[in-house]
Specification:
By secondary structure, the chain is α/β, with parallel strands linked by helices. The chain has 2 domains: 127 residues, Rossmann fold, CATH 3.40.50.720; 195 residues, Rossmann fold (3-Layer(aba) Sandwich), CATH 3.40.50.300. β12, α11 and β13 form a beta-alpha-beta unit. α2 packs parallel to α7 and α4 runs parallel beside α5. The chain starts with 5 loop residues before the first helix and ends with a helix. The N terminus is likely disordered. It comes from Lichenicola cladoniae. InterPro entries: DgcN-like (IPR011669), DgcN-like_C (IPR035086), DgcN-like_N (IPR035402), P-loop_NTPase (IPR027417). This is DUF1611 domain-containing protein. Pfam families: DUF1611, DUF1611_N.
């Protein structure tokens, strides 16, 4: 396999383990960074830190920064990805407390930690680090559109925050279990914290989005798979630009469409309905053929955490009957997931 560019080959030097900061967030979808670390890097998570009793919980032990430090934590990770990616004033006293307790702060928010005077001053005072992972590498090239060696799978979605990262991580694990050379390619802050490398696509200047995707998944051996974490949705009025740049630059051979049964409106935009799976597949393949004429949809990933077993089976059956494609929940191993992996690995 060809060498990877230094921008993604160098592992992030992050202080570990982590205390997961949940702030005063009550919407689980906005705490996806904390949940992602709990589910995919549990060995790095000491506990959680919340401001109110009714804050959403990961189920980890609730600890103060001082108690977490005493138990071995060396950084507090902002586990929230709120709308706009901003550090809220209501969090500042608690984050300053974390710095005073000996913890560095790691953030994937759009707002740089150092842009907040209270945090910058407290970090200087206590000799602590403020670490932003939502920072793209320097000198990202403009995309060339040139075809690359190796195989690529991209997860796409009907909406935001419904399982694209979990699907990519799960498929990477399933491919590896079959002896397939596969690597997860992180494109968002949570994925980067899990993998230790990646490019935060929504922090890249629009003209360089596709180029960043090419950089993230360069030439590779013919039998190597890059499994690329999708971002946003081609149908989301706010975030479709990131999704399109990632699709064109990734040049995926395979896409897996992610969906949450029962979700009716777009995340953060209740006046916009969630598109159908049929429309999502059609739009993705039409746009994706611009840089890979052989692109195909291998199946459907359904987030069924809110469904019981009968409802889950019904959701799979409906998707499979209407689309003629396998459907599975990536967090539930079994025959359905096996069938989805089979479809992904089938030769084009």
């Amino acid at each position: 396999m060809s060498a990877r560019p230094a921008a993604i080959a160098t592992l992030l030097d992050l202080p570990k383990p982590y205390l997961l900061f949940l702030g005063d967030t009550r919407e689980p979808g906005y705490a996806k960074t904390a949940f992602g670390l709990r589910d995919w890097a549990p060995e790095l998570c000491i506990g959680e830190f919340a401001l109110t009793e009714d804050t959403v919980s990961t189920g980890l032990k609730r600890l103060s920064p001082a108690a977490a430090y005493a138990q071995g934590a060396r950084a507090v990770v902002i586990g929230v990805a709120n709308y706009g990616g901003v550090i809220l004033p209501s969090w500042l006293d608690s984050l300053v407390e974390a710095l005073a307790s000996g913890l560095d702060i790691i953030s994937g928010m759009h707002s740089p930690l150092s842009s907040v005077p209270a945090l910058r001053e407290a970090a200087d005072r206590h000799g602590r680090r403020l670490i932003d992972v939502r920072k793209p590498p320097a000198s990202i090239p403009v995309a060339t559109g040139a075809r690359r060696t190796g195989r690529r799978l991209l997860t796409v979605g009907t909406d935001c925050a419904l399982g694209k990262k979990y699907t990519a991580l799960s498929l990477t694990r399933e491919f590896a279990a079959r002896g397939v050379d596969a690597e997860f390619r992180a494109t968002g802050q949570t994925g980067i914290l899990i993998a230790g490398r990646g490019i935060p696509m929504d922090a890249v200047v629009a003209d360089f989005e596709a180029g960043a995707a090419e950089l993230l998944s360069p030439d590779a051996a013919a039998d190597h798979w890059d499994i690329i974490e999708g971002q946003g949705s081609l149908f989301h009025p706010a975030f479709a630009a990131v999704s399109l740049g990632l699709l064109h630059g990734s040049q995926p051979d395979i896409v897996v469409v992610c969906h949450q049964p029962g979700r009716t409106t777009m995340s953060g935009l209740p006046d916009y309905p969630v598109p159908s799976l049929e429309d999502t597949i059609d739009m993705t393949l039409r746009l994706g053929r611009r840089t890979n004429p052989s692109i195909r949809c291998a199946g459907i990933s359904l987030n069924t955490a809110h469904l019981d077993e009968a409802e889950r089976r019904q959701a799979f059956d409906i998707a499979e009957r209407s689309l003629g494609l396998p459907a599975a929940d990536p967090m539930r191993p079994g025959a359905a997931l096996d069938a989805l992996v089979d479809s992904c690995l089938r030769a084009n």
